[in-house]
From TrEMBL:
Pfam families, sorted: PGM_PMM_I, PGM_PMM_II, PGM_PMM_III, PGM_PMM_IV
Organism superkingdom: Bacteria
Gene3D superfamilies: Alpha-D-Glucose-1,6-Bisphosphate, subunit A, domain 3, Alpha-D-phosphohexomutase, C-terminal domain
Cofactor entry: Mg(2+)
Keyword Magnesium found: yes
UniProt keywords, alphabetically: Isomerase, Magnesium, Metal-binding, Phosphoprotein
Organism: Corynebacterium alimapuense
Name recorded for this polypeptide: Phosphomannomutase/phosphoglucomutase
UniProt KW Amino-acid biosynthesis keyword: no
Length: 455
């Protein structure tokens, strides 16, 4: 019998994730598959598509999961090597639940599962994971019906064709595009998605290797962008793209090798959608730059602010009928992609905008860079609530407004500066984000707030 503590250390707010051999093994994953299938069967679903990334542990774990699913009477479609957004595509077009084996940007010893219901609908703590945890602790009742069947399907070509249909790049000016796949699944999906387009792709680290021999597949960390920055300039590329391990996130550098803020990418994609969908709703999470809701309003759209996290964004997308949603972590969500996120689809929108005019990437993005930001800064604390309150006390006489949508977001009096402090769902961390008109103001606020948090 498993303890609740041992299960919740692996099944987190949005997905399953842990160190292979220490936190998860085939038996654990087999039971997760059975628990997921039991939940789905009660809801009337009858099939699960399963894909996996290039990590050495992924194929065996995916097979164990499939055993758990079929033991509960559901059929399985094995997709083989997939990016996470390719799995969402399969869930959407096959109208079945899905499970993607990946640990995204985590180091090689990790693995995990991102799950969804049919139509790529999210499975998070409030939408299924809590029930799966209960079943993992209590034990899944054996199913006395017919064991599910297993089939195989390769959807890569269909996925690529679908993306090219959503964003027409055939008429853009030719672009040189440097791409760092970080030995992750971008090396598998980029060649197919960009097939026969006026793009001269310059590949970096496209060999699939889940040991990540060149650098971590986590472009959110600046040190993992260094190779792409250098490579983009060396190649004389118009733009550089970096994907994380499962290729559902895309980061951008300009022709000078300078990083482009994910918030700026949110703004430009939102603007493109509002041209073809006047007055539409666009989602942004609460740590994106103020530029994003400003651009949405200036283009006649309705901005809806949400919590951080894909399950919240996807639920809000469905509820509000939004055409697009963006997070500052470089997750981008699209209504015509089943409200799911796709790094390559976001990249295609940026390439379409860049290729439709003659300006350089840095020139094109200049109007979207209105503020300076700290990026996310983590601090280990013993008492998250007490540390958060200490920050609020320190700023009590300077607070213009405050909300508690996700942690605390504080607007400061007499300035366009704001900050957000929120607790991690899985670790004893406080996460800080600061934005202000100048880098000097950002640095001063960061120093002051961290001085309180870390005292």
């Amino acid at each position: 019998m498993r303890t609740r503590e041992s299960v919740t250390s692996v099944i987190k707010a949005y997905d399953v994730r842990g160190v292979v051999g220490r936190d998860i093994d085939a038996n654990f994953i087999r039971d997760v598959g059975a628990s997921f299938a039991s939940l789905l069967r009660a809801e009337g679903e009858n099939q699960v598509a399963i894909g996996y990334d290039m990590r050495p542990s992924s194929p065996a774990l995916a097979e164990a999961f499939a055993e758990g699913v079929t033991a509960q009477g559901l059929d399985v479609v094995m997709l083989g090597l997939n990016s996470t957004d390719e799995l969402y595509f399969a869930s959407g077009t096959l109208d079945c639940a899905g499970a993607m084996f990946t640990a995204s940007h985590n180091p090689a010893e990790y693995n995990g599962i991102k799950m969804c219901r049919s139509g790529a609908r999210p499975v998070g703590q409030d939408t299924g994971l809590a029930e799966i945890i209960d079943l993992m602790v209590s034990g899944v009742e054996p199913y006395d019906g017919v064991t599910g069947k297993v089939s195989s399907r390769d959807i890569l070509a269909d996925y690529g064709a679908y993306l090219r249909q959503l964003v027409d790049l055939s008429g853009i000016r030719p672009l040189v595009v440097a791409v760092d796949a970080a030995n992750g699944m971008g090396g598998h999906t980029v060649p197919e998605a960009f097939r026969d387009l006026p793009l001269d792709i310059r590949p970096l680290y496209f060999e699939l290797d889940g040991t990540f021999p060149n650098h971590e597949a986590n472009p959110l960390d600046p040190k993992n962008l260094v190779d792409l920055q250098r490579f983009t300039v060396e190649q004389g590329a118009d733009i550089g793209l970096a994907f994380d391990g499962d290729a559902d996130r895309c980061f951008v550098v300009d022709e000078k090798g300078d990083p482009v803020s994910p918030s700026a990418i949110c703004a430009i994609v939102a603007e493109r959608y509002l041209v073809t969908n006047p007055g539409a709703t666009v989602i942004h999470n609460l740590i994106t730059s103020k530029t994003v809701p400003e651009i949405i309003a200036e283009n006649g759209g309705t901005a809806v602010r949400t919590r951080v996290g894909h399950s919240f964004i996807k639920a809000q997308m469905a509820e509000s009928g939004a055409v697009f949603g963006g997070e500052h972590s470089a997750h981008y969500y699209f209504t015509e992609f089943f409200n799911a996120d796709s790094g390559i689809l976001a990249a295609m929108h940026v390439l379409a905008a860049l290729g439709a005019q003659e300006a350089t990437m840095s020139e094109m993005m200049a109007i979207y860079n209105r503020y300076e930001a700290s990026g996310e800064i983590n601090s280990t604390v013993d008492d998250q609530a007490a540390s958060t309150q200490a920050v609020l006390d320190a700023f009590a006489d300077r607070i213009e407004s405050i909300d508690h949508l996700d942690g605390v977001t504080v607007e400061l009096k007499g300035t366009n500066a704001w900050f957000n402090v929120r607790a991690s769902n899985t670790e004893p961390l406080l996460r800080l984000n600061v934005e202000a008109p100048t880098s000097e103001e950002v640095a001063e606020l960061v120093a002051e707030i961290l001085g309180v948090i870390r005292s």
